[in-house]
Amino acid sequence: MGKIETVGIIGSGQMGGGIAHVSALAGYKVLLYDVSPDRIQAGIATVSGNIERPLSKQKSCAPA
Predict the structure, then answer these.
(1) Which of 39, 43, 48, 60 is 20 to 30 Å from 14 by CA-CA measure?
(2) CA-to-CA distance for 50 and 36, rounded, in angstroms?
């Protein structure tokens, strides 16, 4: 049996976005599918923001 490298998620709402977020952090390639391109773009934006938020906090809290 081969190694899982890609995760496909149907639905980019709150649950799908959360699964996409955790999967991306774990190093998987993530494929996101929803009924409309607008929903996919919104899901990607949410996941990207969730991933970047802790990074921006680390930068702002870094000692001078």
Answers:
(1) 60
(2) 21
